[in-house]
């Protein structure tokens, strides 16, 4: 329980870090004030729980929140709706949406078939990302985040929409990155790790200690 105040403080520091990043990007495009549209990638297992803990410390300036989850994910939607229902009790104008895309990779799926399923997922992610046009993408490791982030990166290259990609590696990853992390390390604007050993191995990353 003694760690709880520290965790909350770190989450608040992270939220303060994200605000100027989005403001800077908007200043370049002539938009200076909130709200900031956020696309949140949810995932099965503990990924959704971790990302919702992070979102709980962000202000209503990060709105609307567009959640993206795999079409085979049966549990995340209930968690998200419960989270947003509680949030609406504090923020009456809270807005969110839910979208599903094909899962890019199943557990223990072969590399060759994973490439094909990821490309298939990108075909759905690209028009979705274009439709939502988020200012910020926040994700923490589920395979679904790879096609979403690559789609946003492509839209940025085409100068259609510049989106800041923030990747927070799962607390479970102590010494090695997840497969999603290994890929998005090269595409994320800010890559956050929660263990010092990862910071040593991946110098581009940002180490903030345990935040979720």
Provide an overview of this structure.
The protein has a seven-stranded parallel β-sheet, with helices on both faces. The chain contains seven helices and seven strands. It is of the alpha/beta class. Residues 1-11 have low confidence and may be disordered. β1, α2 and β2 (65-70) form a beta-alpha-beta unit. The chain has helices spanning 3-28, 47-55, 76-90, 111-132, 145-157, 179-184, 196-201, and strands at 38-41, 65-70, 96-101, 136-139, 164-168, 190-193, 206-207. α4 crosses α5 (145-157).
Sequence of strands across the biggest β-sheet: 3-2-1-4-5-6-7
Main sheet characteristics: 7 strands, parallel
Catalogue the unreliable spans: 1-11
Query: What percentage of residues falls in helices of 4 or more residues?
Result: 40-55%
The tally of helices reads 7
Give a quick precis of the structure.
The chain has seven helices and seven strands. With 212 residues, it is α/β, with parallel strands linked by helices. The model is unreliable at 1-11 (pLDDT under 50).
Overview features:
single chain, 7 helices, globular, alpha/beta, disordered N terminus, seven-stranded parallel sheet, 212 residues
Please describe the topology of this protein.
Elements: H1 3-28, E1 38-41, H2 47-55, E2 65-70, H3 76-90, E3 96-101, H4 111-132, E4 136-139, H5 145-157, E5 164-168, H6 179-184, E6 190-193, H7 196-201, E7 206-207
Parallel strand pairs: 1-2, 1-4, 2-3, 4-5, 5-6, 6-7
Helix pairs in contact: 4-5
């Amino acid at each position: 329980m003694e760690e709880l105040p520290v965790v909350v403080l770190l989450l608040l520091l992270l939220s303060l870090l994200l605000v100027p990043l989005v403001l800077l990007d908007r200043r370049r495009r002539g938009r200076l004030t909130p709200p900031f549209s956020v696309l949140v990638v949810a995932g099965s297992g503990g990924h959704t729980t971790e990302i919702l803990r992070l979102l709980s410390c962000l202000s209503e300036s990060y709105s609307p929140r567009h959640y993206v989850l795999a079409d085979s994910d049966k549990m995340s939607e209930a968690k998200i709706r419960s989270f947003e229902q509680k949030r609406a009790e504090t923020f009456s104008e809270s807005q969110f949406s839910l979208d599903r895309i094909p899962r890019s990779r199943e557990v223990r799926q072969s590399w060759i078939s994973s490439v094909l399923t990821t490309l298939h997922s990108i075909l759905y992610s690209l028009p979705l990302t274009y439709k939502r046009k988020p200012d910020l993408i926040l994700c923490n490791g589920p395979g679904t985040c790879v096609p979403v982030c690559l789609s946003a990166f492509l839209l940025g290259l085409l100068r259609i929409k510049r989106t800041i990609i923030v990747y927070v590696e799962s607390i479970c990853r102590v010494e090695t990155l997840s497969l999603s992390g290994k890929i998005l390390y090269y595409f994320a604007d800010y890559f956050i790790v929660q263990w010092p050993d990862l910071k040593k191995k991946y110098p581009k990353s940002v180490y903030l200690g345990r935040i979720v």
